[in-house]
Amino acid sequence: MFSLSVIVSTYNSPRYLELVLRGLEAQTDRSFECIIADDGSGPGTEEVVEAFRRKLNIIHSWQADEGFRLAASRNRALAIAGGDLVAFLDGDCIPSPRYVADIRETAAQACGDAKSGAYLQGHRVILDAAMSVRSLNVGEIFAPGWIFRHRAHLSNKTNALRFPFPLNRHSNLKGVRGCHMVFFAADLHAVNGFDEEFEGWGHEDRDLVRRLYRHGVDRIDLRGRAVIYHLYHPEHARDEETENLSRAMEERPVRAGRGFRNSQCPRLRRASSCRIHLTGS
User: Fold this and answer.
1) Contact 207, 195 (CB under 8 A)
2) What is the pLDDT of residues 227-272, one digit of tens each?
3) DSSP characters for the chain?
4) 20, 33, 126, 201: which could form a disulfide with 236 (CB 3.0–4.6 Å)?
5) By percentage, how much of the chain surpasses pLDDT 90?
């Protein structure tokens, strides 16, 4: 069975991060490591991570707050990830109890014993602002009937149905979303991870997927599997979106020029500037 690293990206949103970690704590399959890819949060985030140190196999990877640097933050986390599979989950996306089990089972079904060749694209249910600001109980969200009772507060409701669709390989860019993606580590290493030229909001995920397609990796959609609930938040500033989209659609080298192998925080280094906190389960 494939080992798994779940990388949760966050920035100064400790309440949402706590809900995400409660979702991971409630997994039916608890055999995974969790790495918090922190883009420069204050002490509130570290306090949340500390509260889960005895509940999850959790690592806190922190980088200085120098603007929106999601690609660099994820690369730091990737550089210390030990799983055959690497799942990227945004810090405002609560995973359903079978999130980990579905990822493992789908990867095995799609690729057998191979540890490369496909990536899994997840889909999300969106909670509105009114529901997201409530004092949510993670267990309640996944109880029978919750979706029906609160359907007026949900978008993409069909994504909440756990009814696994057939697995089809393709190379479509529509619906590429970095909030819920799963890759084989070997494929990420081959293309040198995310390209850190992408700063500011947007399209570092599209660039990564385009380079993986050129490397020979196919996409498989996690329809009806590994359900997540996306909490509402105001949109990030998108000042760099046009430039980032243009860059993502260029014909670029398969390997990122500024990728995870250029990260300042490689696997065996425990530099204080990285503020990596190793915690046990």
Assistant:
1) yes
2) 999 998 766 666 677 776 677 777 888 998 888 876 655 443 333 3
3) ---EEEEEEESS-HHHHHHHHHHHHT-S----EEEEEESS--HHHHHHHHHTTTTS-EEEEE---SS--HHHHHHHHHHH---SEEEEEETTEEEPTTHHHHHHHHHHHHHTT-S-SEEEE--EEEE-HHHHTS---HHHHTSTTHHHHTGGGEESGGGG---PPP--EE---TT--TTEEEEEHHHHHHTTSS-TT--SSS-HHHHHHHHHHHHTPEEEE-TTSS-EEEPP-PPPP-TTHHHHHHHHTS---SS-TT-GGG-SS-TT---GGG--EE---
4) 201
5) 62
Instruction: Give the DSSP per-residue string, 173-198.
Output: -TT--TTEEEEEHHHHHHTTSS-TT-
pLDDT of amino acid 135: 56
What residues in the chain have per-residue pLDDT under 50? 266-274, 277-281
- d(CA 76, CA 79) in angstroms, rounded, equals 5
- Both structure tokens of 98: 């079978």
State the CB neighbour count (10 A cutoff) for residue 268.
Answer: 6
Q: Answer yes or no: are the C-beta atoms of 114 and 40 closer than 8 Å.
A: no
Q: Please report where in the chains the tokens 């009814």 appear, as a residue.
A: 163
**pLDDT tens-place string over residues 107-123:** 999 999 999 999 999 99
How far is 117 from 14, CA to CA, in rounded Å? 35
Q: For residue 246, with 0-12 CB atoms within 10 Å meaning exposed, 13-18 middle and 19 or more buried, which class applies?
A: exposed
Instruction: Indicate yes or no: pTM above 0.70.
Output: yes
